[in-house]
Specification:
The chain is of the alpha/beta class. 36% of the residues lie in helices and 19% in strands. The strands form seven sheets. It has a seven-stranded antiparallel sheet with strand order 14-13-10-11-12-15-16, sandwiched between helices. A hairpin with a 2-residue loop joins strand 30 and strand 31. The longest helix is centred in the first third of the chain and has 18 residues, at 259-276. The chain is globular. The relative contact order is 0.08.
Length: 1064
């Protein structure tokens, strides 16, 4: 069937900010969908609150709404734009839930909007636990013994029926398993069920028998309106059941199924997608197999494009999201060509002749009090993927792609020194982020494959192969280089075994002709010719990489997402590829992240899906011989390689690596600031506790301490006395003479300002001055900020512009630069300078309507700002607020106070003519919507009491009732503010604030921490605010901005406007 001509306008709902369980895989799918629908001549209307994704750039849809994704606001967009259809399946759980609410409340019917891709009934049947169960039983598929509960009583009855613990609890309609878990006893059962019912938008949980230790598989399936079904990819989890698939190591294609088992699973997948009624598009179906009996059961289905779809797309080269969008408008699979072969239709099932391994990336080091055990609720923040000819090669490549300082499956001099048998056993029994390395330790300690299987239930096939790596690794020092390479060993591991440098191994390897060959990802196991150069490396006989003569630039990506280095950097890399194509350069992308737009086969001219390590990047440069390499766009990952690449003669373009290093060098930087007459907070360096105390006493407390080279503020702390300082020096960091600890005077209560600046060596232009809402001392990635600056004086703004341009000139910046300033008592201080793309580039570009990353890429190859027509600052006449989004709900009970270490996973943007409204929109998008009436609970430390008084006064004026504890209550009373007294938790009198929170009697919480070691009851209150989804502020700057926003919500109506109109 050809496309549906009755549709002209299609509303696409994006997935909002990046959170754990919903990463940038949906930006990748959303970008593909927008491109595919525009190709077919449809007008796309896009709503997404995330500024960091390239999807919300104005060129991807003619109408882009950067607005909160809530049913009320999407309805305003529908009324304004009158779309004919809504595509709900490409924006993750966010889009699916919002679309379902619009359907149930009758909005879609009222405005004649039809859902395409999947209808409401199919979505409901796939997501509603009870309907799904009934549908599977109807078509004869086996399921775990289970029941659906809406109350605690119902759950207890099901528990009695199943009869034996452990039990798995899964809430309906939640994301990444949020709220679910495994209960081993009655008490845990009650806790998890209560949490699950609370988090499920339909108050529903599924309680099911435990399948712990069973094998887990996923099938990625597509269906069209003529009922053609294809399996795109089968994926097998290395970790058995009990670990969320997003936290599991996964391998494609499935390795341990017999052909018969695979065919049974394929038939079951088709039966499932047909019965649920997903008319067109992609679905992901999860199966579990009992290794003892072979019993195969269906666990769940996602009636939408999912995290695994992105993986399956990158693993096979089959563009699932693009095809799904075209199927949604009426095409059939046999009518659509496969982009990669250009000869076969999309109805050919892909076959692959290599092994793909995906590893999750965790950041538990950011949350030391969080529980690091992996369960059915997802905790990973990103993932890396690698491709090899064998599982062994693919696994070792994936491990060195993770950016955790490891270079393969052990043998790299890292890991535990001689742990005891009990320690190894403990680390194998409980799934955890490091378990893969403990498998290596166990084999090194001569555990048998059977013993490791007993402890982990990981399939024997995987364990056999991992044991071979360990057995061979014992002889790595004397092993033939080609053999070592085919087992996936890196130069780093070989160098470690031989006790020589990596450069020596590389030289010997090249001399012996042991160099990688590059193979194509072609969807068809080399049956047809591939037209898209998408490569992976291996050590084989045939090299499929084509020699090309044009001018070419290699762009190094950012690797796996993690806190501190997210999708913003991928955004810059994609812009670089587009910009350089416009100037007729051939672009070569190198990255290992399957979730992103940069690893899409049509973003750049060539794509190398490889780890971002020195060895792998040098190999690619040997193959491609580029005219330039861009390292400034991928965050810290490529920057860490810059100096070594340059040493090997690789041409790095843009700001020189030397300048980048100098900006990190304290002494040089201080001299530079003196030269151009800029101040910085007094500082010193220390290599031990005594030195640190001496420095701190000289400059005065409080001080900010941190290690010297770091991204995302790891292990930073604000210290108020020498006792805490000594503790930090002894416990928190490994200090060495070449890596001293930096001690800076902390500018208390200063206003922090971020500046993004672009320079071509002659002209410099400041993209924007962003004023932070939170005071200095909170990591810039975690703080809300506003363009244009709302309370800086004109003389300070002039000083900032001059300072930025002086710094760009002195550091020889060619491209982008980010500077952080602090303003205290009308004095300007420089906090730090990074001569590279920063995480605020997408936000600034959208605020001022100029694609800074694109211009920067063109400058790197020799264009000037004059030629590009950008020589003056642009001051927007609307307000843009960026707000950070945090993973608190994933780590129940942890303290949510912000500090100098970055904790956010993503960001949102609010835009409006009125600053209060822009802030209000940003809070709605960041899952912290502000109340317009009700009770406010106040408890602030003594340092904040003066500032709290006017805040409380305004809240009373706006009609709120104030309740407070102890000292805060007395102070408000003395100031004549109406306030009700509440008891502190420590006073043990009831009702206390927790009782009121649980009863829904508190609408807003303002609670600031008393000191560095937050008291237990404060943490309980703050984490309680998250658990009960109550709007909250943990500092007074945010509280003041919230009042401005609440006032705007009282006085004005919230309206929606496209990004294109703001910049018209």
């Amino acid at each position: 069937m050809p496309k549906d001509e009755s549709i002209k306008k299609i509303l696409v709902i994006g997935s909002g900010p990046i959170v754990i369980g919903q990463g940038c895989e949906f930006d990748y799918s959303g970008v593909q969908a927008c491109k595919a629908l525009r190709e077919e001549g449809y007008e796309v209307i896009l709503v997404n609150s995330n500024p960091a994704t390239i999807m919300t750039d104005p060129e991807f849809a003619p109408k882009t709404f950067i607005e909160p994704i809530t049913p009320e606001i999407v309805e305003k967009i529908i009324i304004r734009e009158k779309p004919d259809a809504l595509l709900p399946t490409l924006g993750g759980q966010t889009a699916l839930n919002t679309s379902m609410e619009l359907f149930k409340s009758g909005v879609l019917d009222r405005h004649n909007v039809k859902m395409i891709g999947a209808n409401a009934d199919a979505i409901d049947k796939g997501e509603d636990r009870l309907r799904f169960k009934e549908a599977m039983l109807k078509i004869g598929l086996d399921l775990p013994q289970s029941g659906v509960a809406h109350t605690m009583e119902e759950a207890r009855a099901i528990c009695a029926e199943i009869g034996s613990f452990p039990m798995i609890i899964r809430p309906a309609f939640t994301l990444g398993g949020a709220g679910g878990g495994i209960a081993y006893n009655k008490e845990e059962f009650e806790t998890i069920v209560n949490r699950g019912i609370d988090l499920s938008p339909v108050d529903e949980v599924l309680v099911e028998e435990s399948l712990l230790g069973w094998k887990e598989y996923e099938m990625e399936v597509m269906r069209d309106c003529a009922d053609n079904c294809v399996v795109i990819c089968s994926i097998e989890n290395l970790d058995p059941m009990g670990v969320h698939t997003g936290d599991s190591i996964t391998v494609a294609p499935a390795q341990t199924l017999t052909d018969r088992e695979y065919q049974i699973m394929r038939d079951a997948s088709f039966a499932c997608i047909r019965e649920i009624g997903v008319e067109t598009g992609g679905s992901n179906i999860q199966f579990s197999v009992d290794p003892k009996t072979g019993r195969c059961i269906v666990i769940e289905m996602n009636p939408r494009v999912s995290r695994s779809s992105a993986l399956a797309s990158k693993a096979t080269g089959y563009p699932i999201a693009k095809i799904a969008a075209k199927l949604a408008v009426g095409y059939t699979l046999d009518e659509l060509p496969n982009d990669i072969t250009r000869e076969t239709p999309a109805s050919f099932e892909p076959t692959i002749d290599y092994v793909v391994t995906k590893l999750p990336r965790f950041t538990f080091e950011k949350f030391p009090t969080a529980d690091p055990v992996l369960t059915t609720q997802m905790k990973a923040v990103g993932e890396a993927m690698a491709i090899g000819r064998t599982f062994k090669e693919s696994m070792q490549k994936a491990l060195r792609s993770l950016e955790t300082g490891r270079f393969g499956f052990g043998f790299d001099g890292k890991g535990e020194e001689n742990p005891t048998h009990e320690e190894v056993e403990r680390m194998l029994h409980v799934p955890n982020a490091e378990r893969i390395f403990w498998l290596q330790t166990a084999f090194e300690q001569d555990w048998t494959v059977e013993e490791v299987f007993e402890a982990t239930s990981i399939d024997l096939w995987f364990l056999e192969h991992l044991k071979i790596i360990v057995d061979e690794g014992r002889n790595l020092a004397t092993m033939d280089l080609r053999k070592a390479k085919r087992l996936g060993f890196s130069d780093h591991q070989i160098a470690h075994a031989r006790g020589v440098s990596q450069d020596e191994v590389r030289a010997e390897r090249k001399e012996a002709g042991v160099i990688p060959t590059y193979r194509l990802v072609d969807t068809c196991a080399a049956e047809f010719e591939a037209h898209t150069p998408y490569y992976y490396s291996t050590y084989g006989d045939e090299n499929e990489a084509k020699e090309t003569d044009g001018k070419k630039i290699v762009i190094l990506g950012g690797g796996p997402n993690r806190i501190g280095q997210g999708i913003e950097f991928d955004y810059c890399c994609v812009h670089a590829a587009f910009a350089l194509k416009e100037l007729d350069y051939e672009t070569v992308m190198v990255n290992s992240n399957p979730e992103t737009v940069s690893t899409d086969y049509d973003t750049s001219d060539k794509l190398y899906f490889e780890p971002l390590t020195l060895e792998d990047v040098l190999n690619i440069c040997d193959q491609e011989k580029p005219d330039g390499v861009i390292v400034q766009f991928g965050g810290q990952t490529p920057l860490n390689l810059a100096a070594d690449l340059e040493r090997h003669g690789v041409p790095i373009i843009g700001t020189s690596p030397k300048s980048i290093e100098l900006a990190e060098d304290r002494k040089f930087f201080s001299a530079l600031l003196d030269k151009i007459g800029l101040k910085q907070a007094e500082a010193g360096t220390a290599v031990n506790a005594e030195e640190a105390v001496t420095v701190a006493e000289r400059i005065g407390y409080p001080v900010l301490v941190r290690p010297s080279f770091v991204l995302g503020g790891r292990a930073m702390m604000i210290v108020y006395n020498s006792e805490d300082l000594v503790g930090y020096m002894n416990d928190a960091v490994d200090v060495s003479p070449d890596r001293p600890v930096l001690v800076d005077r902390f500018l208390e209560a200063a206003v922090e300002v971020d500046v993004d600046c672009i320079s071509d060596g002659e002209t410099s232009v400041v993209g924007a001055i962003m004023q932070h809402i939170e005071q200095a001392g909170i990591h810039s990635g975690d703080s809300a900020c506003v363009i244009p600056a709302f309370s800086l004086s004109e003389p300070i703004k002039t000083q900032i512009l001059k300072a930025a341009k002086d710094l760009a000139r002195e550091l020889g910046v060619r491209g982008l630069m980010n500077i952080q300033f602090a303003v205290k008592d009308e004095e300007l201080y420089v906090i730090e300078v990074n001569p590279r793309a920063s995480r605020t580039v997408p936000f600034v570009s959208k605020s001022i309507g100029v694609p800074l990353a694109k211009l920067a890429a063109k400058i790197m190859v020799g264009k000037t700002l004059k030629e590009l027509g950008f020589t003056e600052e642009i001051l927007p006449d609307h307000y843009c607020v960026k707000e950070a989004v945090f993973p608190w709900p994933r780590f129940p009970g942890i303290d949510i106070v912000l500090g100098p270490e970055m904790k956010s996973t993503g960001e949102v943007m609010g835009i409006d003519e009125d600053m209060g409204m822009a802030y209000a929109k940003a809070q709605i998008s960041a899952f912290n919507p502000l109340p317009t009436e009700g009770n406010v609970f106040f408890s602030v430390n003594d340092r904040d009491k003066d500032r709290a008084v006017p805040v409380a006064r305004e809240l009373v004026e706006l009609g709120f009732t104030i309740v407070a504890t102890g000292g805060t209550y007395k102070r408000f009373k003395a100031e004549g503010i109406e306030v009700e007294r509440l008891y502190k938790l420590a006073e043990k009198k009831r009702p206390n604030v927790m009782d009121m929170m649980k009863n829904g009697e508190i609408q807003f919480i303002i609670n600031t921490p008393s000191g560095h070691e937050a008291r237990e009851d404060e943490v309980t209150i703050r984490s309680g605010a998250v658990a009960n989804t109550i709007s909250h502020c943990t500092n007074l700057s945010a509280a003041e901005a919230s009042i401005l926003a609440i006032r705007s919500l009282h006085e004005n109506e919230l309206t929606v406007t496209t990004l294109q109109e703001y910049h018209a």
